[in-house]
Design brief:
- Strand 1 and strand 2 form a beta hairpin.
- With 291 residues, the chain is mainly alpha-helical.
- The longest helix has 28 residues.
- The chain has 14 helices and 2 strands, in the order H-H-H-H-H-H-H-H-H-H-H-H-H-E-E-H.
- The protein is 69% helix and 6% strand.
- Helix 7 packs antiparallel against helix 13.
- It has one domain.
- It starts with 11 loop residues before the first helix and ends in a 5-residue tail after the last helix.
- A two-stranded antiparallel ribbon has the order 1-2.
Length: 291
């Protein structure tokens, strides 16, 4: 999940959904509530740990941390030097995961089909949006934190890309460089409260409207293919960071079709197939749908 967030358009939520841990992750986050706080205040640390599915959450966080210092660095190198091939691999991975996730819908009725269409249109619309102007208002920063963290756990929506669309990616990036708490604190509060609140909402919706929720997420993943499409030109913006070197960020894309006779394209197509096979293998190893 940590490595997935390095790739523009790829969400850690997609990885969690495809590998079959998504529902448990939402339930574990949802259990970080007043019940857990009450157990902690009464000194029942073991009970609080079990209440929050502590072993599971600790394993996820440890995996994300390891990824940040290891695999994420490899992916950053690949994106910088072999972007088309890297994106092609993830395109194949995500394309096959659409089927993997979609087949967990128990009954494909009118509402589920409508949810797929809505999810796809929403994800594509986010990819097409022009970035908003920068806004350092504390209330807007709090909202950015809420929306960014929610999109990070929603399959198919990239939190960093959503933050770019909201216009505050450069602002937050600069604030991290100079440790500007006036900007970082509202963002952090939004992220923390947004994650816990959204987990409760998502958990309730998942239980009450399972098929429609999974179908909506399938649409999100399908729509995210627009961002992961390997053959596109980036629309770049230069970000000035205090005390650090300037950084270019992506604010949009211009898509084009590849030349099929080109060797680079053929390698990319092969990597798409390999990416799809990775998802198929993961499903087989984990026991597929029944697991």
């Amino acid at each position: 999940m940590g490595a997935a967030n390095v790739i523009p358009g790829v969400s850690g939520g997609t990885v969690a959904l495809v590998t079959g841990i998504y529902e448990r992750l939402i339930n574990a986050l949802k259990s970080c509530n007043f019940g857990a706080a009450k157990l902690l205040l009464t000194g029942d640390f073991k009970g609080a740990w079990q209440h929050m599915d502590g072993n599971f959450l600790a394993s996820i966080l440890a995996g994300v941390a390891v990824s940040i210092v290891t695999l994420a660095k490899v992916l950053e190198f690949l994106l910088a030097n072999h972007e088309i091939w890297t994106m092609a691999f993830f395109f194949g991975l995500i394309a096959v995961s659409i089927y993997s996730v979609g087949r967990t819908v128990n009954q494909w009725g009118v509402s589920a089909i409508a949810a797929v269409i809505i999810g796809t249109l929403l994800a594509v619309s986010v990819a097409m949006l022009a970035p908003a102007s920068e806004n350092a208002n504390a209330g807007y920063l709090f909202l950015c934190g809420v929306i960014a963290i929610c999109s990070m756990i929603l399959p198919g929506l990239s939190g960093s890309f959503v933050l770019i669309i909201m216009g505050n990616y450069a602002l937050v990036l600069g604030a991290i460089g100079r440790f500007d708490m006036a900007i970082l604190l509202p963002m952090a509060l939004g992220c923390g409260l947004g994650l816990l609140a959204f987990a409760h909402v998502l958990g309730w919706v998942y239980d009450k409207y399972h098929d429609q929720t999974v179908a909506l997420m399938t649409g999100f993943i399908l729509g995210s293919l627009a961002v992961v499409w390997p053959w596109k030109n980036k629309v770049l913006e230069q970000v000035v960071r205090e005390g650090k070197a300037d950084k270019e960020i992506t604010t949009g894309y211009e898509w084009f079709t590849p030349v099929l006779s080109d060797s680079t394209t053929l390698i990319a197509l092969a990597l798409m197939v390999i990416g799809g096979l990775v998802i198929w293998t993961m499903e087989k190893v984990s026991g597929g749908k029944n697991h």
